[in-house]
Write a structure and sequence with these properties.
By secondary structure, the chain is α+β, with helices and mostly antiparallel strands. 27% of the residues lie in helices and 29% in strands. The chain is elongated and about 65 Å long.
Length: 213
């Protein structure tokens, strides 16, 4: 499990209370530390809400709760976490090079392939690689299960012809700082005779022309 107390900022009193909750989960329900941390993450690290959820499940049974997944391997029900899948890249001029110093937009269709809505304050963030994006953090609207949307990453190519820019992006729940879903790989080839920026400019002008008809 990817969650630890070190992943978020807590004062010592909060840490002590959470450690107590982890101990209760272990003693009362014979559930491991990671399971208790999932309760906390599911409730945005609100200890009181995590305890309520824990007691609710063990008082009235998991059958009354939605948004939980059963793990056949260990026999536990786990709170479902957000899921994001990259469905396809829809960049205009995909496969073409980019001229040095030009500004282009990489476009991806993504979908909520999980069983719970995305957080209300989720963001797409640059996490590693060649960062030539205009914005390293991009606000993304919440999607319900089964919904899809298009996201855009604007890149300003450096004056370095022959360079291939590769960057990795992840979706984050901003309230917890936890990433979720697929990585988005943004790959751009900078070429002296690159035409992606021109292709996108023409497509944009054509779209505006149609809108004005």
């Amino acid at each position: 499990m990817p969650y630890e107390l070190s992943d978020i900022t807590l004062d010592q009193e909060q840490c002590n209370k959470i450690e107590t909750f982890i101990g209760i989960c272990n003693v009362v329900a014979h559930q491991p530390r990671e399971y208790a941390l999932l309760y906390l993450n599911y409730n945005h690290w609100d200890l009181e809400e995590a305890i309520k959820l824990f007691l609710h499940i063990h008082d009235v049974g998991i059958g009354t709760r939605k948004n939980f997944l059963y793990n056949d391997e260990d026999g536990y029900f786990y709170p479902a976490l957000p899921e994001m899948t990259v469905l396809k890249e829809t960049t205009i001029g995909l496969g073409e090079g980019v001229s040095p110093g030009s500004r282009i937009t990489k476009t991806f269709e993504v979908g909520n392939t999980g069983i719970i809505p995305w957080p209300l304050n989720c963001t797409l963030r640059y996490v590693e690689g060649d960062n030539y994006a205009e914005n390293a953090i991009i606000e993304i609207k919440s999607l319900k299960p089964g919904e899809s949307d298009t996201i855009h990453i604007t890149i300003v190519a450096p004056n370095l012809p022959g360079t291939v820019l590769i960057s990795r992006w992840r979706m984050f729940d901003s309230s917890t700082g936890m990433p979720f879903g697929d990585s988005i790989w943004c790959i751009v080839g900078v070429e002296t005779d690159g035409i992606m920026d021109l292709t996108q400019m023409i497509a944009d002008l054509e779209l505006k022309r149609k809108e004005n008809i």
